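W.,

You were right to be curious about this one. When I first looked at the sequence I had no strong expectations either way, so I just let the prediction run and decided to look at it fresh. Below is the sequence, 316 residues in total, followed by the output.
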Amino acid sequence: QINIFGKTYCMNLLDFIQTFPDEDSCKVKFKEIREKEGVVCRKCGCKEHYWLSTIEYFKCKKCGARTPLKSGTVLENTKLPVRYWFIAMHLITSTKKTFSALELQRQLGHKYYEPIWAMLHKLRIIMGKRDDQYYLTENIELDEGFFEVALENKEETLKRGRGSQRQAKVLVMTSQKTIKAKEQKPNKKTSKLKFIKMKVLDSLNAKNIDTQVVEQIHPRSTIKTDGFRSYTNLKNYVKRHVSQVVPSNEASKFLPWVHTMIANAKRNLLGIHHMMSIEYIQNYLNEFCYKVNRRYYGEDIFERLLIASASNKWTD
């Protein structure tokens, strides 16, 4: 890690090139990660393997079944070089914002756009899977956000307000810890952000929101929301639910971190991608949340994404 003036920075481009100069160096690192996480035989479940370097397969010590290096990972069935995946992981974890598939295609000099686009979305899906393994705890702010998306049927008559087809409905949840009075700074928030989750919903009805709260928030937490009617059941799933009817011009003061994260996500995503499909906006939000939740990891965020990629198989 690089430490400058007390701040930790990610591995820069020169460090990455020196560490992973070619395809073989990337395969060696990926093999190391797979062995550390544990390779499980698909036939007998044995966890002990030999490495067959000439054909890049793991061979089960018990039944002799062979497992390719990429099998059971996000790289399974990919025809792209492993180094492409490493470069993509480095670029999206070393920047606060993100990279578009078109820009990454240009940087890699790859002929086709579609495989680069698919690679980035597979990584974003893995990011979401990783964050889904953890609960938000303690003090939670919860509110809904609306993100503009591209219309598939441009001739369709548009609704207005919450039901508009141009708006993706997103449930935003943040956990934070209160800052001691003596540590608070003037005109700053009285709490410090810990973690965040964003989930795209078909509808902001009580059933959908209740389901997400049960899946994403620890039952011993305290949730703070506005007076939206779909939040009325939340008291049944957590230790405490604080609800208050808030005028629209006061919402950012009552739920400061939720509104800050919604604004940051919109600037981040729309500034790069300009217009997103409703089908894939969850993937973009996965990346945003993953990076916010690991903002203090420095260069370890690249390693963590490598581990997640080696431990999880991409599925539709």
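Here's what jumped out at me. Residues 1-8 have pLDDT under 50 and may be disordered. And, maybe more interesting for your project: The longest helix spans residues 114-131.

Coffee later to discuss?

I.
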